[in-house]
Amino acid sequence: MARSLVSLRCATPADAPTLAELWAEVLRRTDQVERIADLVTVIERAATTDGQRLVVAEYDGEIAGAVHLHVATMTPINLEPIVFAVSPHVFPRFRRHGVGTALIDAAVSYAEERGIGHVATGAAAGSRDANRFMARLSLGPQAVLRVAATPAVRGRLTAQRPAGQRPGNRSGRQLTQVLAARRSLRRSQTPPSVGSH
């Protein structure tokens, strides 16, 4: 029986530059120095916080992939405990060598250690290979996470309002004031109802 060339260990701060390369597309948009500093913080937090673990997969002694494991609840309103396998990534040259399977196995083992009945992960919507891989491991879609820049959403919300209700629309404010004045005038001119004397 051939021995596996994949081994798992907890990340150390020295791994931060390689992890910044691995996770380049999912880290915040900033310069490389700040990305590495962010990852040192994440690695140190995972090492000292109960309910977190950052696992590095090595293939024949070289970093091949990683995943961040995080214990939380299913959602803020569904308190079922769950292990989130956040950003399980494998460098392209190490794909199809069992590295991704080892990372998900680490998540399942972590859930079993803690007596947690569910594991969740995500894959980019456009990554057919990643989504097929997750489906083969029985990880089905639960929700679709949609993300946009705050100004973009504000712009769309504003555009969908009727013209008179849009912020900064002077005529809309004037119309609201005119209608309020008319209601007030009508109330003041209405005779009191019978039996109110």
UniProtKB/TrEMBL annotation:
Instruction: State the source organism's domain of life.
Output: Bacteria
Q: Does the keyword Acyltransferase apply?
A: yes
Report the CDD domains cross-referenced here: NAT_SF
Q: Which UniProt keywords apply?
A: Acyltransferase, Transferase
A Pfam family per the record: Acetyltransf_1
Give GO terms: molecular function aspect only: acyltransferase activity, transferring groups other than amino-acyl groups
- All copies of the N-acetyltransferase domain together span 6-160
InterPro entries, sorted: Acyl_CoA_acyltransferase, Bact_Acetyltransf, GNAT_dom
Region Disordered: list its residue ranges: 155-174
What protein is this chain from? GNAT superfamily N-acetyltransferase
